[in-house]
Design goal:
α4 crosses α5 and α10 packs antiparallel against α11. It is built from eleven helices and eleven strands. By secondary structure, the chain is an alpha+beta fold. The protein binds (3R)-3-hydroxy-3-methyl-5-(phosphonooxy)pentanoic acid.
Length: 330
């Protein structure tokens, strides 16, 4: 059984979103995580993830390993109860199917995982691997899950590995839709009035989101009044941006991106490399640019007229970007 999940990029609102302010993010389908599961003749659950040089039986991995924790948790829930989707259906045939492997004991599987999403770069690689793996397991072991269930499961996994995540990554990746995200609220998608182009530039520096989120928390703890005000400003930017995207006034997003980048600099989550890519994009004609995601490394984004995207992309490479992706938001 095969399953895939896209990468994602945050357009506005990272970090402040952890404190309940809205953020906007969109799927990036040019990069994805892919999982294939086959029954195996050898005993055990074998995981092959050549990108990270991982070839191991499940039980040889620490139980909190990101991939192992998805499989353990899935086996646990699917063994405990029939799938909620199965339970809703009256056909006992389907329900029997969902229990069959549980009575046989653990299945013997070969799981192949690959991903074109750079790790720890703000493109949602962890959430994409979790979602693709979960969907492949759920199909292969006949335990259907809704998008809501996949999303809730992926959020629990994010919490194990990222401390206090807002849940934006797993939500965009699980639904594969543009999302106006507010922590703890029902998922809200948004319409794109007129398509626009984003150039994504990768610093090539991997920077764990957990650390930048923890550092912002220290700032906030030291002066809550000040940082609540900064987060309010970021939230306003995200709200305005949603309006502009919906009405098709995307050119006005440039100024909002620049302002959002300044506020992220104030939070001390930018870096000299991110700042120089942001600067290079603006000089090459971008309407605006900002870092995207946890910061300190990873990716930045630039808003471009479609015909300027290639020039901006070349300018980013000349300024040191390791890779660029041009994506249309529509
Ligand atoms: O996973 P990243 O690096 O795209 O960043 C996630 C965005 C943060 O707001 C920094 C953290 C979060 O949990 O929302």
């Amino acid at each position: 059984m095969k399953a895939s999940a896209p990468g994602k990029i945050i357009l506005f609102g990272e970090h402040a979103v952890v404190y309940g302010r809205p953020a906007l993010a969109v799927p990036v389908t040019q990069v994805h995580a892919d999982v294939e599961i086959l029954d195996s003749n050898s005993t055990g659950i074998w995981i092959h993830a050549p990108d990270i040089n991982l070839h191991s039986e499940l039980n040889a991995l620490p139980s909190d390993h990101p991939i192992a924790s998805v499989i353990h948790n899935f086996l646990f829930i699917s063994r405990q109860s029939p799938s909620p989707i199965h339970a809703e259906r009256s056909g006992s045939e389907v329900e029997a199917g969902s229990r069959a492997w549980g009575e046989r004991g653990f299945p013997n599987l070969n799981i192949k995982i690959s991903s074109s999403i750079p790790v720890a770069s703000g493109l949602g690689s962890g959430a994409a691997v979790t979602v693709a793996l979960l969907r492949a397991l759920s199909s292969h072991l006949n335990y259907p899950m809704t998008d809501e269930e996949v999303n809730a499961f992926a959020y629990d996994i994010e919490k194990i590995h990222h401390g206090t995540p807002s849940g934006i990554d797993n939500t965009v990746v699980a639904y594969a839709k543009p999302v106006y995200f507010v922590k703890g609220q029902l998922i809200e998608t948004f319409k794109v009035g007129r398509p626009f182009t984003i150039v994504i530039g990768d610093t090539g520096i991997s920077a764990p989101t957990k650390e930048s989120v923890a550092d912002v928390r220290k700032l906030w703890e030291a002066d809550r009044a000040k940082w609540e005000g900064v987060f309010d400003n970021v939230g306003e930017i995200a709200r305005h941006a949603k309006e502009k995207i919906e009405t098709g006034d995307w050119k006005l997003l440039g100024g909002l991106m620049n302002h959002n980048h300044e506020l992220l600099q104030e939070m001390m989550v930018s870096s000299p490399e991110l700042d120089s890519l942001v600067e290079a994009a603006r000089k090459a004609g971008a309407a605006g640019a900002k870092l995207s995601g946890g910061g300190r490394g990873g990716n930045m984004i630039a808003l471009a007229e479609a015909e300027k995207a290639d020039d901006i992309s070349s300018a980013l490479i000349s300024a040191g970007a390791k890779n660029t992706i041009v994506t249309q938001i529509s």
